[in-house]
Amino acid sequence: MAEKMEALASQQSGFLGVESAREDVGITVSYWSDIDSIKKWRANLEHQEAQRLGHEKGYPLRSM
């Protein structure tokens, strides 16, 4: 799912990049040029669905 979200995010205006770390747990941090770009990413329906699925599986997701 992280790879799919990175590909989707990279198509969004204002996307700067992403860093991920995976071991026992994982974290992915995305970087954006401005707050409006972040708001648009948060409003993306596929991103919202990925977050919902993560919550259902017990992943502690945070989004700015």
Can you give the helix content as a percent range? Answer: 40-55%
| Strand order in space, largest sheet | 1-2
Tell me the count of domains: 1
Strand tally:
2
Low-confidence stretches: none
- As for the CATH topology, it is Alpha-Beta Plaits
Run of helices and strands: HEEHH
Quickly count the helices.
3
| Helix/strand/pairing category | alpha+beta
Mean pLDDT: 84
| Rounded Rg | 11 Å
Task: Assign an overall shape.
Answer: globular
CATH class: Alpha Beta
CATH architecture: 2-Layer Sandwich
Share of residues in strands: 15-25%
InterPro entries: ABM_dom, Dimeric_a/b-barrel, Jasmonate_Hydroxylase-like
Protein name: ABM domain-containing protein
Organism: Vibrio xiamenensis
Domain ABM: 3-52
Describe this structure in words.
It is a single chain. 47% of the residues lie in helices and 23% in strands. The protein contains 3 helices and 2 strands, in the order H-E-E-H-H. Strands 1-2 form a two-stranded antiparallel sheet. A hairpin with a 3-residue loop joins strand 1 and strand 2. It is globular, with a radius of gyration of 11 Å. The mean pLDDT is 84. This is ABM domain-containing protein.
Fold topology:
Layout: H1 2-10, E1 15-22, E2 26-32, H2 35-43, H3 45-56
Antiparallel strand pairs: 1-2
